[in-house]
Design goal:
By secondary structure, this protein is an alpha+beta fold. It is built from 2 helices and 4 strands; from the N terminus they run αββββα. The chain is globular, with a radius of gyration of 16 Å.
Length: about 100
């Protein structure tokens, strides 16, 4: 969906309202937006190259990490986020890594 320049403040307000709702519900872990649309890929030897791993026309504006009990709950929150930011949301299950616990 294309957002007109004069609508961006409303998009931000609506998106932040969903974040506040997720925090109040206790499901919000973290999230944020990306500063630019110029991703880079870093290889094992340290080489940095422009672009994503695979060529894509999709531009990601940010991400949200929520802790929910089911796929259905994840989809419900994704729908709220999609409505707020006026764009579809990709949902992925995050695999816990016991090595990453503080």
């Amino acid at each position: 969906m294309q957002v007109a320049d004069h609508e961006w403040q409303q998009v931000a307000d609506d998106s932040h309202a969903v974040v506040r709702e997720a925090k109040a519900a206790g499901v919000w872990i973290f999230g944020g937006g990306f500063h630019s649309y110029e991703p880079v890929t870093v290889h094992a030897d340290g080489t940095v190259v422009a672009g994503p791993i695979a060529v894509s026309q999709v531009r990601l504006g940010g991400f949200s990490v929520l802790e929910v009990e089911s796929a259905a709950e994840a989809y419900a929150w994704a729908a709220k986020i999609a409505k707020g930011c006026r764009c579809p949301q990709e949902v992925r299950e995050f695999i816990d890594d016991p090595e990453s616990v503080n």
